[in-house]
Amino acid sequence: MLGFWLLVGVAAAGWVFGLPRRWLVAALVAVWAVIELAHLAGVGTAFGGSARGWLVAGGLAGVVMGYRAGLGRLRARAAPAPVPPAADPGMSDAELDRYARHLVLREIGGPGQMRLREARVLVVGAGGLGAPVCLYLAAAGVGRITLADADTVGLSNLQRQVIFRSDQRGEGKAQAAAGAMRALNPQVAVTPLPRRITGADADLIAQHDLVLDGTDSFAARDAINRACVAARVPLIAGAIAQWEGQVTLYDPAHGGPCLACLFPTAPAPGLAPPCAEAGVIGPLPGVVGSLMALEAIKQLTGAGQGLRGRMLIFDGLHGESRMIGTARRPDCPVCGSGSRVSN
Ligand SMILES: [Zn+2]
């Protein structure tokens, strides 16, 4: 019995002194080995039992310990993988789910999505270009979107302005488009502005990080450009006619040209007729407006290479696109030395 009490004593001492489990097992095995060897040598009677008895007891203890160790390893393997850190502590579960395809993009990720959420964007014109711009920016989670348009929905708009429905004819475009954006993504704040943007709107524009212009007259584009230059806010401009469209970024505050650097004077009458006169193929504003939304997301998140100093031209009739370089004119009448007010 002495051998048994010896083992109990070692186990109790190990527990009292907080011996690590591995050391305790080693001590017990050592005591057991001494007893077994003593029995085999014929001097173990004082420990009690027999060589065979201690061997069986030791074997059983070994099996039990081996079983427990194996079970522990299995449990560790079956334990759930550590949860990856959330993209951002400020993002809700619904946002993590909604923007999951952005969050896995290396160039956007959590920080980029947070920048989109914090962004304030002004969209001018809820027409053919404005429709995809508004839908994609709202879907992408651009936090605050102001949408300016003085027009109402007409039947001839519906061939390409896919943000509207037939039963919305006669409704204000800004309100109707805002409703569609809220239905798509209730997490973005949309402010409809049922009026035109003029050259006097620099203060309004200064409350935004970026302006997207989808209007279709030179006078409107010129006014928006002047206000953006005055407010030092970058402007993504898209234009379409018939089968061809173009998109670029005007950003003279960061070295790029403004609209007036490229087009200092209004085109001669009849040279650049609006879509109502020249016609436009339905999906073309979908292509060019989507490019505008894409460039807006890049501009807001800092992803990739934007269109500052470049203009992308898309020819839908021949299925071609090309890029041309653009440059700021030092004597530009709006952003350069030719302007009356220094910027
Ligand atoms: Zn300029």
From TrEMBL:
Pfam families: ThiF. The keyword Nucleotidyltransferase applies. The keyword Transmembrane helix applies. Residues 99-334 form the THIF-type NAD/FAD binding fold domain. It comes from the Bacteria. Belongs to the HesA/MoeB/ThiF family. This is Molybdopterin-synthase adenylyltransferase.
